[in-house]
Structures are given as C-alpha cells and as structure tokens.
Design brief:
Largest sheet: 7 strands, mixed
CATH architecture of the largest domain: Alpha-Beta Complex
Number of domains: 2
Helix content: 25-40%
Mean pLDDT: 94
CATH class of the largest domain: Alpha Beta
Number of strands: 16
Structural class: alpha/beta
Radius of gyration: 20 Å
CATH superfamily of the largest domain: Medium-chain alcohol dehydrogenases, catalytic domain
Number of helices: 10
Oligomer: single chain
Strand content: 25-35%
Distance between the termini: 14 Å
Order of helices and strands: EEEHEEEHEEHEHEHEHEHEHEHEHE
Length: 334
C-alpha cells in the first residue's frame, strides 16, 4: 500500500509500505479522507514536540470503509463506513494516532469495538463528516470545559478548525451569543457562515472597544464575557479576556501557548474566575457524532481544500495558509 512516513522537519515521504494484517480482534480500514491537524503541521514545520516521531506514519482525523474483520470482532462487518476515534489505548498503552496513520491507503485498528474506537456512519453522513468528528471533538471538549449557558455572552479566540469546531458545538447546544475573534478575514467569514453572532479582528479594533460597542448598556468594570474558549494561543488576547470577563466567568484553554503570560491573581479572586486546560476529548467523540447525525452540525464551509496523497507536502503548506484555508484533507477515496 501507499503510506506516508514522517522523516523529520520538512520531510515526509509517500512510500510503498506493507499491507497491514488484522489479528483476531482487529479490523482493516480503507481510508477515504484524512484531515490535516495542527499537530501535523507543527511537526512538519518545527518539530520537537514529540507528537510524531521520525520514521512513523501519521494522520489521525480519518474515516473510511472496513475491508477486513478479525474473527473475534463483534458488530463490525466488511463494507461498513466508519469514523475512527484515535484517542483510545492500544496494546501496550499506545494510541492509534501514533501506531498507524490515516495518511495511508489502509489502517489497522487493534481491538476494534463499536462505540469505543469504531463509530458506524449512517447513510446520510459523508466521509467528510466522519473525518471532521475528531477535530470538532477537540473544540467541543473546550466548550464543555467552559460550560456556556444558552444566554451567555461567549467569546472564541481563534477561527481555525478547533475554534470553528467549538463554534459549531456551541450552536448545536443552543448558545445564542457567540463572538469569534481572529486575525484572518477569510476565517472570520467562515465563522459568520457557521453562525457566529459577531466577529472581531484585533488588527482593526481593540477587543475592549469592540465589546463596549457590542454591549453599550453594560458597564466596563463589570465585564462582558461569561465564557471563553481559547483556540488561538495568543498571550495578549488571553490577558485581555481575563480583564474583560464577568464575575464567575469560565475560560477554557485549548490552544498551545508558545510563551508564558502574565496573570494578575487579584482578577481571579475579585471576579471569581475559573480557567481550565482542555486537551483531547474524553467523552466528546460520540456527542459530536450525534450532532452530525441529528443535523445540528454542518461544517461544509470549513473544508476548503482536498489533495491526493501524492501531494501531501503541498497540502501541509496550504494547511497553514490562514488567508486561504481552514481544514485541508487528504483524499484517498479513489
């Protein structure tokens, strides 16, 4: 089969690899689509995080068709269209995203089980929907961590795939007032298409001024924001949010910040603020899939580009182009 090996910074290679073989508890999936994650581009352009080790396959946002089923696997059959949850332990404590990547024609899924690591796709969902469940689940965990109520005034920092996934999750929950802040006008337009109440570009307007114009009847000293999901990783933006939050506000940190920020403990004490980290999606994968199934999420505007496997390096470069792209996928469906 054709599969992609990460060799190091700036070097990924599509090679002829051995076809995977399913054991008694395993299945083989023919990959249809695999999305490019920020962790993939981070390793390709900068590395050092250890998310992908040189010599390994990668790609973890994928969907496809079951083509081989081990004799002890229950409830899964050949021809079944599925989304894969890669954040489940494999033998030896490894994870699927590390063991075998979705940027390949076929993927081995060990210890396959329905509603654990394998989620069947109903006929009305596409492979694109299936491949989006994973990144949207990351944003959804950020939403659940922040815990917005339907009438809250909510802010999302960042209109990349995770921020827009958080927006989609909030709209699915019925949250009415969601502002999205980003430097990219292209991505802010996508946020509008996905239901943002308003969008903010810090290159054009200071966040405090923007919120004062949005909510003129509210006193600045009392704050404006009930809940925030940080999917941007901007220290200055997060510092602004802390100052502009209401009493009892919840802040969820999903983005990986590259530098420390200054925190004023008095703000947290006097405003009774809560700030929590959010990583992965401990329970959100089935929640997000149910949103897709019920028609509460439609993320077609988010998928801007598809490339064949042979053009994966071009795709990686496009994935970091914030003026033209949001979610870029590798298409192996042919």
């Amino acid at each position: 089969m054709k599969g992609t090996i990460y060799k190091g910074v700036g070097d990924v290679q599509v090679l002829d690899l051995p076809d995977p073989e399913a054991g008694a508890k395993d299945i083989i999936i023919k990959v249809a689509l695999c999305g490019i994650c920020g962790s993939d581009t981070a390793e390709y352009f900068k590395s050092n995080s250890g998310a992908i080790l040189p010599g390994n396959q990668f790609g973890h946002e994928f969907s496809g068709t079951v083509v081989d089923v081990g004799k002890d696997v229950k409830g899964i059959s050949e021809g079944m269209r599925v989304a894969v949850n890669p954040m489940t332990s494999t033998r030896g404590g490894r994870r699927y995203a590390c063991m075998a990547g979705g940027f390949a024609e076929y993927v081995l899924v060990e210890d396959a089980a329905v509603n654990y690591n394998i989620y069947p796709l109903p006929d009305h969902l596409t492979f694109e929907d299936g491949a989006l469940v994973e990144p949207v689940s990351v944003g959804m965990h950020g939403v659940n961590t922040a815990g917005p109520k339907q009438d809250d005034q909510v802010l999302i920092l960042g209109a990349g795939p995770i921020g827009l996934g958080a927006l989609a999750g909030m709209k699915a929950l019925g949250v009415k007032n969601v502002i999205v802040s980003d430097l990219s006008e292209f991505r802010l337009q996508k946020a509008k298409e996905l239901g943002a109440s308003a969008v903010h570009n810090p290159k054009e307007t200071d966040l405090a001024e923007f919120l004062e114009e949005m909510y003129p009847d509210q006193h600045p000293a009392m704050g404006y924001i009930d809940a925030t999901v940080d999917a941007a990783g901007s220290g200055p933006a997060l510092e602004d949010v802390i100052c502009l939050s209401k009493g009892g506000s919840r802040i969820s940190i999903v983005a990986l910040h590259k530098a420390p920020i200054e925190l004023e403990p008095m703000f947290f004490i006097m405003k009774d603020l809560q700030m929590k980290g959010s990583v992965g999606y401990p329970t959100e994968f089935p929640q997000v899939l149910s949103f897709f199934i019920d028609g509460k999420i439609d993320l077609k505007p988010m998928v801007t580009h598809r490339y064949p496997l042979a053009e994966i390096e071009t795709a990686l470069h496009m994935a970091i182009n914030t003026t033209e792209a949001v979610k870029v996928m590798i298409d192996l469906s042919a």
